[in-house]
Amino acid sequence: MSVRYDESRRKYVADYVDALGVRRAPTFDLKRDAQSAERRGAIRTRRRSTIDPAVTFKEFADDWLAEASLRLRPQTIDGYRGTLRDHFLPAWQAWPMIDVDREAIRALLAAKLRDGYERSTVGRLLVTLSGLFAYGVDRGLFEANPCKGLAKRLGLRTGNPKQRTKAGGKVKALERDELAAVLAEARNAKDDDVYVGACLMAWAGLRQGEVVAFQWPDWREDRIKVERTAVRLYETNAPKGTVERLVPCDPKGELASVLRSHKAKRAAQAMKEGRPLSRWLFSEMDAPRPSVIGRLQARLDHGIREAAKRAGVKASCHSLRHTFATQLLLAGVSVVKVQQWLGHKDISTTVGTYGSWLPHRDTGDLEALAKATAPREVSETA
Hints:
Structural class: alpha+beta
Radius of gyration: 26 Å
CATH superfamily of the largest domain: Intergrase catalytic core
Oligomer: single chain
CATH class of the largest domain: Mainly Alpha
Largest sheet: 4 strands, antiparallel
Order of helices and strands: EEEEHHHHHHHHHHEEEEEHHHHHH
Helix content: 40-55%
Number of strands: 9
Number of helices: 16
Distance between the termini: 65 Å
CATH architecture of the largest domain: Orthogonal Bundle
């Protein structure tokens, strides 16, 4: 930190590092103004952390989780603990907490992006880390949160997906013809696992993580049991909201046909290779490695978006789930049944999200399900 005179600009420069660890170099006409700014910056820099240099990142993180567990749900704490264990502790476990500065955070998140993680995933990592540092700021251990502004700098998405949906207006659900075109393109893409995953989202309302965690024993000709989701790396957990559910599956319907055909194909391939059939839809889940779930989710998301693009529509994995819900409501299935099949813990979530599709009539649920999810023929040029 210093004050210097810049001949090219004919200004005095106050060179210092601020409380966020960012180097600053404001210019002034008068030397005394530059010296005053440099002194203020130096004071803030010395105050930016009063934490004991002997405290490690892991010790501080454990302290934060213990405090957070008093006010947050156990499932949320488990998510934070898993994020720290899988992404931050391998790099910083023994680091003194005072050394985990803005540049170290930026470098680690940038490395995650280079490794192929989605910007939304890295954004969630930043949210966890920001919460940890906010705890330190509240206790007076840090002058400022070093995570502030990094999302914009790295182009990360940190907002709640539900909030983004509400901010963007109505739910993005496909028309029947649009859905048929997207599924046709997914089938033609020659990634069978992604196509089956798309069918599970569109015709059974599974979430992206629930598709990655889908096992063949979950399916019994007339129903699909949803009891786990892929939450991070190679761990699975209860579905969102901890609501396990049974979704009816018409044994004579298209979804049952797709599942039956795909399972038979995988069984024949396994027999040819002299190994047992994997219980997972995505066989990579048999021998998980770091980031396998993240990569499978990215593969699924990319496959759906590319299929939609070729079909001439804009859609994501969640668009298929939205379509499942809206087509059921339009077919006359009761909102209570739709809530149960979607796995919403509270019916207000279902009504609030799909209220404009609520019907004024009711029909037999299984018949309506078959009608709502029955595919339409799509021409080869669609």
